[in-house]
Structure formats: structure tokens, C-alpha cells
Specification:
Elements: H1 2-22, E1 32-36, E2 41-46, E3 51-56, E4 65-72, E5 92-93, E6 97-106, E7 109-112, H2 121-127, E8 128-134, E9 151-156, H3 169-181, H4 196-206, H5 222-230, H6 257-265, H7 298-306, H8 333-342, H9 359-376
Helix pairs in contact: 1-9, 3-4
Length: 389
């Protein structure tokens, strides 16, 4: 029995080593994936949080959705819906079915963290089926036969609010409009509304730049000031005629003193690009050096696992000291990949390292770490594929 357990443990370690070799480090990208149910309805899924969104084109032909039925063959629904959305007795939310009845019709709707995070496009395509009806009649279903009634929509970069495959000023202008109406569909920080905090979140966390970076090239400098004042909308007396490109840096569609104050308070003027790893000072140290004492060693591993954030399914809650060493807000396997690729484990201060360990040495380090990880994170894990494009 003991020998069988040992063999299984070694097999698990070898699998982890294979993952370290084959899986690239992933930051915050390719987060939104979705499916065109038909020309008017799209279902969006955010694998970083498990959130589902219903995107409905409201025009003369389609005035909202009155019934929406999403079923999961595997029974993966979490039972957690957006606040106030599921209303008994007709609405149903179980592990296998998410059903809504809205007689007046609904448009764009945040459905809540209805699915576990980290699911792959291929898996969801095979697992989910969608049906429903429009306000003026007609079925959401397209096609026939078994399986899901939708087609793959290309994965979108998180923060790409206008779905044009880029993080650009158009996303900020769309977010500014959403802020005027407090549209929860554009809630980026998870507090239930669209406000200035979401605006800051987009600039800092998704684009990794500064308030005031008009051309979104990663820096806020004199070139941005020349550009926005050349546009001629500064306190021009014309209401709501400014955009991010022309100086509206606080989302009120005006370019005025408030925007300049807001930008300079952000502290990025002539500071160069924003640091993707703000918790890691510019010092000669290793990825994995959680306590920033100049070394990556067992003390760092003890510290990060004490934080309790290793693959805890709570989105974006980790920083450098907690184990987020790749800057994606999570402490997970990807951080170990980066840290061990950096090859500083138990190698002393970085300045004293003369050689990078061979891949075989890194593998031995990982084998020694396997048991530690499994004990520290002893809980069920969803076998999910990392989504990448």
C-alpha cells in the first residue's frame, strides 16, 4: 500500500514537472470568451471569475429576451447569481439549469459568477446548451440536433469593452458612458456598479498605464499634454464633447481642470512606464523572493502559503508578498513556473549567482516542492485548461 501511494505521489510530481515545462506563464489576457447564440444575442464568460454576461442587441427586430435557459450537462452551475436576478417561483437556478423568466424583456445583463472560473472554450462549447425567447416572440435557438446552439466567438482580451480585439481609448469612452448610467455590465472591480473606481481599474490593472496617458502608449508625459490641448476642447463651453484622447481623464466627457488635477494626483507624469510588479522594488533579487530579503528560499514558500491564497478561487486577491510573482493578481501554478524558471531557489542573493541551474536541477527542486504544495493546498481542484490564443 505504501509503495503504491509513493508511486502515485511521484506520478503527480512528474505531471507537475510536465506542466512546468509545457504551460507558459499567463498574465491577464484572453479573459473574455463568448458565443453568438444568433445575430442578436451573445453569451460571454469570464474565466478569471466565472462570471456570465448576456449581451443583447436591442433593435426593432429584437426587443429583449423574455426567457433564457442555459443548461450544463456536467452540472457545473455554482448557484450564485447576480443579486436580485433570480425570482422564484418561475426562475430556476440549480447545478444543471439556469432559467430566467422576464415578461418585460431584458437586454444586457450580468448573470453573476454562475460557473467555476478557469473553464476552457472547448469544454464550455460541449457542456452548455442555450435556448429562450424574445419579447415579441421567436426562439433564441439556432440550428438543430443535439448539443449547444451557438458558435464560438473569438476570445477577447479582458478590458476590451467594445470587442475590437484591442485595449484602446474606445473602451474608456464606452466605460465613461456606462458610468453615467451606472451600468453593472461594465463593473470591472466587482463592487456591483460602474464608477470611477472601474475607470481607474481599467487604466491601472488592464492597460498598465497612467491617468493622463492620452495616446495610451504606456507613459504620461509632455507629448500627451501637447496632444490634448491641440484638440481644443479644454473648457470650451461645449457640453460632453471630450474623450480620453482629447483630455477627458475622469470619465465625465469634459476636459477641464478636474482632469489635470486627477492625472497629476495619479503620480505618473514623466515617470516612464507603469511597473507591472508594483510590489517588487527595483532591486537585484529573484522572482519568488516574497519577503524581499534578497533571496528566494524556503522562508518565502512558508510565507506565501501562510497567506492562504494559493488557488483559492477568489479573483485578483494576491500581491507579491502573497505569491503573485507574475503580476496577474493570483497565486497559482503559473507563479511557480516563473519563479523556478528564474532559477533563484536556494541560490543565495542574485548578485552572487554565477550560473543558472540546468533544467534537471529545476526539476529536482520541483519534486521536493510537490509534497509541500499538496499539503498546503489540500482541497479539490477543477481540472481546467488554461485558455490561451
Amino acid at each position: 500500500m505504501h509503495s503504491q501511494s509513493f508511486v502515485r505521489a511521484i506520478a503527480g510530481c512528474l505531471l507537475l514537472i510536465a506542466q512546468l515545462a509545457l504551460v507558459p506563464t499567463v498574465a491577464r489576457a484572453d479573459l473574455f470568451c463568448g458565443w453568438n447564440v444568433n445575430d442578436a444575442v451573445t453569451l460571454l464568460y469570464d474565466p478569471s471569475t466565472g462570471e456570465l454576461y448576456l449581451d443583447v442587441a436591442l433593435d426593432e427586430g429584437h426587443r429583449g429576451v423574455t426567457t433564457l435557459e442555459i443548461t450544463s450537462k456536467s452540472g457545473l452551475f455554482t448557484g450564485v447569481a447576480a443579486d436580485g436576478l433570480v425570482s422564484p417561483p418561475f426562475d430556476v437556478f440549480t447545478s444543471e439549469k439556469y432559467f430566467l423568466l422576464k415578461t418585460v424583456g431584458i437586454g444586457d445583463t450580468a448573470l453573476g459568477p454562475a460557473l467555476p472560473p478557469g473553464l476552457s472554450v472547448d469544454f464550455l462549447q460541449s457542456d452548455l446548451s442555450i435556448d429562450g425567447s424574445y419579447y415579441r416572440g421567436g426562439s433564441l435557438r439556432t440550428g438543430g440536433g443535439g448539443g449547444p446552439y451557438f458558435g464560438i466567438l473569438e476570445c477577447l482580451t479582458s478590458g476590451d469593452l467594445d470587442y475590437n480585439q484591442r485595449l484602446d481609448s474606445g473602451d474608456l469612452d464606452l466605460l465613461a458612458s456606462a458610468m453615467q448610467h451606472n451600468d453593472a455590465m461594465f463593473d470591472l472591480d466587482g463592487d456591483g456598479d460602474a464608477d470611477l473606481e472601474d475607470w481607474i481599474n481599467w487604466v491601472h490593472e488592464w492597460k498598465y498605464t497612467w491617468i493622463g496617458d492620452a495616446d495610451l502608449n504606456g507613459e504620461f508625459n509632455s507629448s500627451d499634454l501637447v496632444s490634448v490641448f491641440s484638440a481644443g476642447t479644454y473648457e470650451d463651453g461645449l457640453p460632453h464633447n471630450s474623450t480620453w484622447l482629447t483630455g477627458d481623464w475622469n470619465g465625465d466627457f469634459e476636459f477641464d481642470t478636474g482632469d489635470l488635477v486627477f492625472a497629476f494626483q495619479d503620480g505618473g507624469y514623466e515617470q516612464g512606464t507603469r511597473d507591472v510588479f508594483p510590489d517588487r522594488p527595483d532591486k537585484q533579487t529573484w522572482f519568488g523572493d516574497a519577503n524581499l530579503d534578497g533571496e528566494f528560499d524556503t522562508e518565502d514558500l512558508v510565507a506565501v502559503f501562510r497567506s492562504g491564497k494559493y488557488e483559492d478561487d477568489i479573483p485578483l486577491n494576491a500581491d507579491w508578498a502573497d505569491g503573485d510573482w507574475n503580476g496577474d493578481g493570483e497565486f497559482d501554478t503559473a507563479d511557480f513556473i516563473l519563479a523556478f524558471q528564474d532559477a533563484g531557489y536556494e541560490s543565495g542573493p542574485r548578485a552572487s549567482v554565477a550560473a543558472v541551474p540546468e533544467p534537471g536541477q529545476v526539476s529536482l527542486l520541483v519534486i521536493g516542492l510537490c509534497g509541500f504544495i499538496q499539503i498546503a493546498s489540500a482541497r479539490p481542484r477543477l481540472d481546467a485548461e488554461i485558455i490561451r490564443r
